[in-house]
Design goal:
- The chain has helices at about 25-40, 45-55, 55-85, 85-105, 110-140, 145-170, 175-195, 215-220, 225-255, 260-270, 275-285, 290-310, 315-335, 335-340, 345-355, 355-370, 380-395.
- The protein is mainly α.
- It has one domain (about 20-200, about 215-395): Growth Hormone, Chain: A.
- It starts with about 25 loop residues before the first helix and ends in a 7-residue tail after the last helix.
Length: about 400
């Protein structure tokens, strides 16, 4: 007689919650978190290695400028890929490009290092645009204000630990270790993506239409004031973090701080994103508009103090971390202004344009600072970005009051 006993069950503390085994807010947030860790391990390694190859902050700015120009074109080309390939295939291409990036960087050759930076930004474009499309498919619009702080909070571990871990691995174990860890993260990200079996939902599928040129997408995007405003505000937030990641370590190294200490300070600043859920609750209670007004204002004021402060390492470190806490207020709202404004039938096209905010934020600062640093000291970088953040307080006033 066959046994009717049920198979043994794993202890409760070993069971994976159902929310992480199916497409949901927590599982998609976890995917973003793994992607963040994959990039953040190289976050401080890359600008410091570029500085070692090129010898000056001004040349590093030019390098980031050139790579960002390529990234903008890559973002605008993703909708064409999505016309020709399934969404999952485009995501897989993004993972492959990121694996290629870490392989090239690990060679230690300056020319291949530049190729690796290009491969990385193109891989991020493919992976992030497709993942944001899945996000919009599976997260209701009314839940986005709560989801964005959750996504940023989940990514906090990567932002907080990755920059320091990458430099520590490089200096204490082996030069290729941060690249190996980043590659492992990319593989884990793809395996979890496959396990979730994410797929587009028919109810929100885009309208059938012939492929449009990227220029038409640009015109369509900027003809909608709410989308254009969301893009400008996102550039401001991302530009500040670009300056923090690239120029804060260089500023501290120039004052005599060890590279590992610089990476630890960047990680400490990134740890401020753990406060995103606090700011998200404030946004849900008082509105995204008010939170962004305060966030841009406080971040701009503190960054201005960084630019004017005396060149004392411990003082600069404290001020940089304090200004990162201010920037985390903006991250608490995240991309909600765009996600709430985009129309369902044109998500892929409008997302491809909106995601250029990250590349533009890596394009505008290097373009500005490559010229500025010819005649001004490095501290002027922080004064300029502070003025930009304070100027965005004015633009944030135009967000809908009901947001």
């Amino acid at each position: 007689m066959a046994s009717t006993a049920s198979p043994p069950r794993a202890p409760r503390w070993l069971r994976i919650p159902d929310a992480y085994r199916r497409p949901s807010g927590p599982s998609i947030a976890l995917l973003f978190a793994i992607a963040t860790f994959t990039r953040s391990v190289l976050l401080t390694v890359v600008p410091l290695q570029a500085l070692a190859y090129l010898g000056s902050a001004q040349r590093v700015s030019v390098l980031y400028l050139c790579v960002s120009l390529i990234a903008v074109a890559g973002n605008l080309g993703v909708p064409l890929l999505l016309r020709w390939l399934p969404r999952r295939a485009v995501y897989a291409l993004g993972v492959v490009l990121q694996l290629g990036c870490v392989s090239l960087m690990a060679t230690g050759q300056p020319v291949l290092f530049v190729c690796a930076m290009v491969s990385q930004v193109l891989g991020i474009a493919c992976a992030e645009i497709t993942l944001n499309l899945y996000l919009l498919d599976h997260i209701p619009r009314r839940e986005l204000v709560r989801f964005e702080p959750l996504r940023v909070f989940y990514a906090g571990a990567g932002w907080a630990g990755g920059p320091w871990l990458g430099v520590w691995l490089q200096q204490n174990l082996a030069g290729v270790m941060p690249f190996a860890v980043s590659a492992l993260g990319a593989l884990v990200m793809f395996a979890y993506f496959r396990a979730l079996r994410l797929g587009p939902r028919a109810a929100v599928a885009p309208r059938a239409s012939p492929p449009a040129s990227p220029l038409r997408h640009l015109r369509r995007f900027f003809s909608q004031p709410r989308l254009a405003l969301a893009w400008i505000l996102a550039i401001g937030r991302s530009s500040w973090w670009t300056v923090f990641y690239v120029y804060a370590p260089i500023l501290l190294v120039r004052q005599g701080a060890p590279e590992e200490t610089c990476a630890a300070i960047v990680s400490a600043g990134n740890a401020a994103v753990f406060l995103a859920r606090v700011w998200g609750r404030l946004a849900a209670r008082h509105g995204v508009r008010k939170v962004l007004l305060w966030g841009y204002g406080v971040t701009g004021a503190l960054t201005l103090v960084v630019g004017l402060a005396p060149a004392v390492v411990w003082l600069l470190a404290v001020l940089l971390v304090a200004s990162a806490i201010g920037a985390s207020v903006i991250d608490g709202a995240g991309n909600v202004p765009f996600l709430r404004a985009v129309r369902p039938y044109e998500r892929a096209e409008m997302l491809s344009v909106f995601m250029t905010y990250r590349d533009a934020s890596q394009l505008v600062p290097p373009a500005t600072f490559s010229a500025l640093l010819h005649v001004m000291p490095l501290s002027s970088v922080f004064i300029v970005v502070a003025a930009w953040m304070l100027g965005l307080v004015h633009y944030a006033r135009y967000l809908p009051r009901r947001l």
